[in-house]
Design a protein that fits this description.
Blueprint (H helix, E strand, L loop, with lengths): L1 E3 L4 H10 L4 E4 L5 H6 L7 E4 L9 E3 L5 E3 L5 H5 L2 H6 L1 H7 L5 H4 L4 H6 L7 H8 L2 E6 L2 E6 L4 E3 L2 E2 L6 E7 L6 E8 L10 E10 L2 E10 L6 E2 L1 H7 L6 H14 L10 H23 L5
Parallel strand pairs: 1-3, 2-3
Antiparallel strand pairs: 4-5, 5-10, 6-7, 6-10, 8-9, 11-12, 12-13, 13-14
Helix pairs in contact: 5-8, 9-10, 10-11
Length: 288
């Protein structure tokens, strides 16, 4: 195995583009190192991104959003008061990944690129309208987070491309978000269903919304039907009922040892209602 420590994303992309065998990037390592120790993958080239300046930083953008480095661990996200205040749903999704020890290493970018439809951090990013900067042999481009996953264990990144940053838009006024999941145990389990909701209010009325569903399809779903169900409403019982019905209609899960497809469909509706209510209360300043 060839171990690389590039000092720029351009160099990392060049190494990746020239690699001919199995390639893996290393940021937090909570996925790739476990896979290596289990014999699931043995990279010919391992590119360690932690030597690139800025990968451990959380910074305000000029527009008032947030730029998050690819090696920022979950525990640092959870400890960043301003980021938590702007995007609590994004942070609480990432903070559900693994144990305290895992939180010290696991990253948003790694969780996203692992390609799991049940990834806890991804629905919150999608609901927030987050984008990633992707650096490749021909330069950099920005991509909505929902366009990164291609299926279980797969992404839409081309050969030689690597995520070089994650950007959250400005939160603005009268907005709130939330992420909820269902798991069989109380902690350290994989989501059977996950749901993130981000919305904005004008007075009591929802004027903007994004709803993302996890673990109910090959990739995390951005549901326009769910958003339409609540936009223009005051999130009353009728709107919540329409949201639940839309979530159930969008969900196309499988049955496995953690839950039947019928159960997952029902839970998708329940979580959508609950997450929307939390996001609404946060937008009203009623919930931390």
């Amino acid at each position: 195995m060839r171990y690389h420590t590039p000092t720029s994303f351009a160099d990392a992309a060049a190494i990746a583009a020239g690699a001919s065998g199995t390639l893996r990037f290393l940021a937090g390592g909570t996925d790739v190192l476990v896979q290596m120790r289990a014999g699931m993958v043995q990279p010919d080239d391992l590119i360690d991104l932690k030597h690139i300046p800025g990968v451990d930083k959380i910074e305000r953008t000029a527009e008032g959003g947030w730029r998050i480095g690819v090696a920022v661990p979950g525990i640092v996200l959870g400890g960043h008061a301003d980021l938590v205040r702007d995007w609590p749903g994004v942070v609480e999704g990432m903070n559900l990944v693994g144990s305290t020890q895992v939180q010290g290493r696991a990253t948003l970018a790694g969780n996203l690129c692992n390609g799991s439809p049940a990834a806890d951090s991804v629905p919150g990013l999608i609901a927030a309208g987050a984008t990633v900067t992707v650096t490749g042999p021909n330069g950099s481009r920005d991509l909505p987070v929902e366009q990164v996953p291609a299926g279980p264990g797969k992404t839409n990144l081309a050969k030689g491309e690597v995520i070089s940053a994650i950007t959250l838009p400005p939160r603005g006024k009268n907005g709130g978000d939330a992420y909820l999941r269902f798991i069989p145990r109380t902690e350290m389990d994989i989501a059977v269903v996950g749901c993130a909701v981000s919305l904005r209010l004008d007075g009591d009325k929802v004027v903007e919304a994004r709803v993302a569903l996890g673990a109910v399809a090959p990739t995390v779903l951005l549901s326009e039907a769910c958003a339409r169900a609540i936009i223009g409403t005051t999130l009353d019982d009728a709107a919540l009922g329409a949201l639940a019905k839309a979530a159930e209609g969008e969900a196309k899960p499988i049955s496995d040892k953690r839950g039947t497809k019928e159960f997952r469909i029902a839970v998708a509706g329940v979580l959508a209602r609950r997450a929307a209510k939390i996001a609404y209360d946060r937008a009203k300043g009623l919930k931390a």
